[in-house]
Amino acid sequence: MTDTKNEKIHEMTKVVMIVEDDDTIRKLLTIECKRRGFEVIEYRDAASAMAAIDRNKPKVDAAIVDLMNIGYGGNLGDYLRKYDQYRTVKIIYYPALTDSQFNKNILETPGTYYVHKVPGSIKTVIEIVEKI
To answer: Alpha-carbon distance 49 to 72, whole Å?
Structure first.
């Protein structure tokens, strides 16, 4: 006998994938997302996240991704969107790149955001996640 009430709650809970190699920043993002009721799956690098996507196809509603992340050059957004189930995932790129270093063409894809990683910017990232 399955607990359909718990299954429905899980289906309604928004899932945030965090891909960040800086342990402190990843933990802060995780704490803030969980505090707001989101389920979080976290990875230290893009390669691990991509392996999990290929293997498990986890539910993901939003992804917070450090563009400079080790693995796939950080462009996890393109990788996610090659799968039909992830085409509507909101991608929040969260690198420490300056505006002149960041390729703004990435933002042409709907549902894609950029937040420059500076002190206090986690609040901005969480505000975007809350809008999903």
So the answer is: 10
Domain borders along the chain are: 14-130
Cα-to-chain-centroid distance, residue 104: 18
Of residues 99, 109, 105, 80, the one with CA closest to residue 19:
80
80: phi then psi, degrees, rounded to nearest 5: -60, -45
pLDDT in tens, 109-127: 788 898 888 899 999 999 9
Does residue 102 contact residue 73 with C-beta atoms inside 8 Å? no
CATH number corresponding to 14-130: 3.40.50.2300
What are the tens digits of pLDDT across the range 65-95?
A: 987 665 554 477 888 888 899 989 999 988 8
Task: List, in sequence order, every residue forming a beta bridge with 18; answer none if it has no partner.
Answer: 42, 64
In the numeric block, which tokens belong to residue 4?
């359909």
* Dihedral sign (CA 106, 96, 47, 125): negative
Q: How far apart are CA 32 and CA 77, in angstroms?
A: 22
**Backbone dihedral region for residue 73 (phi beyond 0: left; psi -120 to 50: alpha; all else: beta):** left
